[in-house]
Amino acid sequence: MHMQDSRDHKLLNERLRSGELEAFHVIYKxxxxxxxxxxxxxxxxxEAAQDIVHDAYLKFWEAHSRFDPDRQALPYLLAIVRNSCLxxxxxxxxxxxxxxxxxxxxxxxxxxxxxxxxxxxRRLDEVLRQLPEKGYEALMEHVVGRKTVRQIACETGVAxxxxxxxxxxxxxxxxxxxxxxxxxx
Length: 185
Fold this sequence. Notes:
Blueprint: H1 3-17, H2 21-43, H3 46-62, H4 73-91, H5 99-112, H6 118-128, H7 133-143, H8 149-156, H9 160-176, H10 178-183
Helix pairs in contact: 1-2, 2-3, 2-4, 3-4, 7-9, 8-9
């Protein structure tokens, strides 16, 4: 970070810490779109993601007097958003209709978020390792790669019905282990 940028950043944080609402608005405008997109990757629900980010900013503002002016606001906000997203996913675990979306969100989060909670990441990896290689590849191409069953079949040289079977079996195993992945039991 450039020296002037560092001083400006610290001044903004000091203004925030003293309770200056304008400083909060600057941080809000600066990071809101990025945080919303981050949350959408987890929860696959734009409205829920927006609510989560709004709540994160509220928690951030409520703690402004304890904020360290030497710290960046973004990592702090990301941590709040990530924890809220995981709590949101855990609250959906009793709704079977949401299980596939939760699994897809976890797969995306695992691929794209290096800060994903290590225990959650370890549990997800443990279940993914149980998948047969073809099932794992088909699932990742379909969910993470956003490829259709037809595209995967053409690329791998197998029948569409075989690709569907691989994906169905992989999702069945992930659904069976969803509680273990989310909460460790």
